[in-house]
Design goal:
Blueprint: E1 4-8, H1 13-27, E2 32-36, H2 54-69, E3 73-76, H3 105-117, E4 121-124, H4 134-146, E5 152-156, E6 167-170, H5 173-184, H6 190-199, H7 202-205, E7 206-210, E8 218-219
Parallel strand pairs: 1-2, 1-4, 2-3, 4-5, 6-8
Antiparallel strand pairs: 5-7, 6-7
Helix pairs in contact: 1-5, 2-5, 3-4
């Protein structure tokens, strides 16, 4: 049985969105887990591997990040990874032109894991996917439907966005250090990490969440 399970489409989403939450929950004795629905094969290679090798490289990156985050459970499914909008630049890994939106059976795969792992809370993207990536949007929808009657869904959200912040986690120095170390494992995503650091540096040490049904903003965890 888990207390928190992060369900995201791509390796690296788990650390960007909830790396601090996973670390703080683990430090308080809770059991945590990560489930990714794809292996990120449509991402950039940055010359670190051949396109056909990217899925396995990103899986190894995810495993190293999960070790830094100290999670109790890790699983990566192999549904196809959609390209983000405006992703014509090369080189990238192998993409089929399909993504999670074309594979609604991912919802049943999520529900099977929830029934087996029995998490109290599931963390995922909000319905808008934060940045509109089709895989983010599809994952949010699938998690919401799969978790019905099984777990409470929590969204990691932008501080200023359509979903009001109900819980804010300000990471202590030790947790920020570990989160940065986890991000550093995703070497194929270095450009995305640098872009995030340039545009939203404060979101590295402050994570914001929306727990549906709650009002107001609480400083601290919801668990």
């Amino acid at each position: 049985m888990l207390d928190l399970l992060v369900v995201v489409p791509h390796p690296d989403d788990e650390t960007f969105g909830a790396g601090g939450a996973l670390l703080l929950a683990k430090a308080q004795g809770l059991r945590t887990g990560i489930l990714t629905l794809t292996r990120g094969e449509a991402g950039r290679t940055l010359g670190l591997c051949a396109p056909e090798e990217l899925a396995e490289v990103r899986l190894r990156e995810l495993k190293r990040a999960a070790e830094v985050l100290g999670v109790d459970h890790l699983e990566a499914l192999a549904f196809p990874n959609a390209l983000p909008q405006g992703a014509e630049e090369a080189p990238r890994g192998q993409a089929t032109g399909e993504g999670l939106a074309q594979h609604p059976e991912a919802k049943e795969a999520i529900r099977e894991r929830l029934m087996g792992l029995r998490p109290r809370f599931v963390l995922t993207f909000p319905p808008d996917g934060i940045n509109g990536h089709p895989d983010h949007v599809a994952t949010s929808r699938y998690v919401e439907e799969a978790a019905a009657g099984l777990a409470r869904v929590v969204y990691f959200v932008r501080p200023e966005g359509p979903y009001p912040v109900t819980h804010r986690l300000r990471l202590p120095e030790w947790a920020l250090k570990r989160k940065l170390q986890a991000l550093a494992q995703h070497k194929t995503q270095a450009l995305s990490i640098l872009d995030f650091m340039e545009r939203h540096p404060e979101r590295l040490w402050t994570e914001t969440f929306h727990l549906p049904g709650n009002q107001g903003t609480r400083e601290g965890p919801w668990w």
